[in-house]
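Researcher: Next entry: Putrescine transport system permease protein potI (Sulfuriferula multivorans).
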Amino acid sequence: MAHGKRSPAFYWLAILFGLFVLFLYGPVIVIAVLSFQGPEGGLTFPMHGFSTHWFHQLFAGQSIGDISGAFGRSLKLGLVVMVITTIASFLAGLGFRSRFKGASAIFYIAIASLIVPSVVISLGIGAMFELLKIDRTWITSALGAQLTWTLPFGLLIMFAAFNRFNKSYEEAARGLGASSLRVIWEIVLPILAPSLLGVALFGFTLSYDELSRTSQAAGALNTLPLELQAMQTNATTPVIYALGTLTTLLSFTVIGLALALAIFLKRRRARHGSDAVKTA
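Model: Predicted structure:
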């Protein structure tokens, strides 16, 4: 084969990848386009006008649901889940570095919820709260239900990060007289910052769009995915598309901020390493 000439397989793979991207993002693009219809617009093409009318209608006190309240609850719940998942995963990663008796059993128990059907977990948590005579709410029972989903992912990420961690950095710091807490704060945390950022991103995004595990545990007040599911049965206007567009934009914004922070931490770490070499 001549130098620089691509094989037919390359073009077939490129076409296949293009179709996959279209299949993945095509529905999102369609929803985004339809959400900008005019006041007379419907749920299908062709479009009738172009405006931001349906975005204004989202928070105009519609009779079809509590959009603003559901959005606020999902945002707060996502932030709480993110913080708990990040802290718990990091502490668990530290604890599992020393192979204690029963570590394997605890690990498999911790990630077992990943293979249990989400609806079963949701029903179990709802039944448990009913048995204990405790009201189900979005910040108690729903929080517990979502942590059964986010914590295993956080644990797997942190275990992988700690497996690649070079302990010689800690040993050098302790050799210079640093305490265990200072070693964690000034050595371990900065090195693992990108992994912790990944855990935080997983925690928030998995919580923000979680439906099945929250369905029977949220109580009387819905989170945004539950509200969106309820709207599908009675929403006959593009307002539901406007909601989908806003939630998609929020998801991409969170991902973008996480990537920007990861790049910043990487450059900061490289700059500090360069300064250290120059000082030496």
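Model: Note for the record: The chain has two domains: 1-61+235-271, 65-231.
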